[in-house]
């Protein structure tokens, strides 16, 4: 049974006992979405859909896909998108990370201008696993990095040129390690202001390839000038 809707960061969200309830990490993701999301957006591991819905509210965002391995989360995100007036701007996918967006014989890999991901980052032993599908939101394996490392190994194939990655990270599973992996791939990484607790720090990493972004902005500027008959003046 779904719980009554709550107000979270100005959004009306229905909840479900089998879906991760928005918390401090979700708030950081919403703040980042409102600042950085643009173009076509992928909200991966969407849970209630809060990141995707916050993104869809922006005029700079053309479309959003809310995706999750948990079927209950996909259905809940759909309900919440409609309740917040962005249902026509958002589509939904049941997927294990990028499986629904991978290339096939009939189509190339689907790419996004913005990818947002709040992964399961808690170090978890088999004895600590939560019963049912809710465990998908918490269980990061023994190191806390099982899903994060798999994501970081494959996300670049689905990020459009000039695109931005918005990734939630925790000190429990190694913020600096994720930064190092991204920088090795050629990304410039910005660590946004964090939330600190006595046992943990959580933050959002914003990663972009600045050369790609600058080149894309230059092409867009030239296209606008040509459309207005200003090129070559």
Name of the CATH homologous superfamily? Vaccinia Virus protein VP39
Whole-number count of domains: 1
Q: Helical amount among residues, as a percent range?
A: 25-40%
Number of strands: 10
Radius of gyration: 18 Å
The top level CATH class name: Alpha Beta
The share of residues in extended strands comes to 25-35%
Average pLDDT metric = 91
Distinct helical segment count: 6
Low-confidence stretches: none
In CATH terms, what is the architecture? 3-Layer(aba) Sandwich
Distance between termini? 64 Å
**What would the principal axes of the Cα set say about the shape?**
globular
Structural class: alpha/beta
Task: Report on the architecture of this protein.
There is one protein chain. This protein is of the alpha/beta class. It has one domain (3-227): Rossmann fold. It contains 6 helices and 10 strands. Strands 3, 4, 5, 6, 7, 8, 9 and 10 form an 8-stranded mixed β-sheet that branches. The protein has a two-stranded antiparallel sheet with strand order 1-2. α1 runs parallel beside α2. The mean pLDDT is 91.
């Amino acid at each position: 049974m779904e719980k009554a809707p709550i107000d979270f960061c100005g959004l009306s969200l229905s909840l479900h006992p089998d879906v991760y309830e928005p918390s401090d990490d979700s708030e950081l993701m919403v703040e980042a979405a409102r600042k950085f999301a643009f173009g076509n957006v992928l909200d991966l591991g969407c849970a209630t859909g809060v990141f995707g819905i916050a993104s869809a509210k922006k005029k700079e965002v053309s479309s959003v896909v809310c995706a999750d391995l948990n079927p209950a989360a996909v259905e809940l995100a759909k309900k919440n998108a409609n309740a917040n007036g962005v249902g026509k701007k958002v589509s939904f996918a049941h997927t294990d990370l990028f499986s629904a967006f991978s290339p096939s014989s009939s189509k190339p890999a689907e790419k996004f201008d913005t990818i947002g991901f709040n992964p399961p980052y808690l170090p978890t032993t088999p004895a600590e696993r939560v019963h049912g599908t809710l465990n998908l939101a918490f269980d990061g394996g023994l190191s806390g990095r099982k899903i994060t490392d798999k994501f970081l190994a494959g996300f670049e194939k689905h990020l459009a040129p000039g695109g931005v990655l918005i990734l939630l990270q925790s000190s429990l599973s190694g913020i600096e390690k994720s930064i190092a992996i991204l920088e090795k791939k050629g990304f410039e990484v910005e660590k946004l202001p964090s939330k600190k607790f006595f046992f943990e720090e959580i933050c959002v990493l914003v990663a972009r390839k600045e050369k790609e972004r600058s080149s894309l902005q230059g092409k867009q500027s030239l296209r606008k000038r040509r459309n207005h008959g200003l090129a070559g003046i």
